[in-house]
Amino acid sequence: MENGMNNSPSGTLLNKSQVAAKTGLSASTIYRLCQAGKFPKPVRLSERRVAWKKEDVEKWLENLHYA
After folding, report:
1. DSSP string, 2-53
2. Is the entire prediction scored with pTM above 0.70?
3. d(Cα 45, Cα 36) in Å, to the nearest integer?
4. φ and ψ at 26, to 5 degrees?
5. Mean pLDDT, rounded, for 2-18
6. How far apart are CA 15 and CA 52, in angstroms?
7. For the chain: N or C, fewer Cβ within 10 A?
């Protein structure tokens, strides 16, 4: 993995820090929005590690501009 990103068959994955930087949201806000169904669900990589599909985060950001 390079810089926390993984090129998997389903696309590039972003770690929590990258998602926070891309969205301008704190980690706690990201998790709160996930729980409320207002942010893409993360992909579980291990028992203690999750990541988000870059495509899902980018679509979420695009939809913000149209809301």
Report:
1. BTTBEEETTEEEE-HHHHHHHH---HHHHHHHHHTTSSPPPEEEETTEEEEE
2. yes
3. 21
4. -75, 165
5. 72
6. 7
7. C
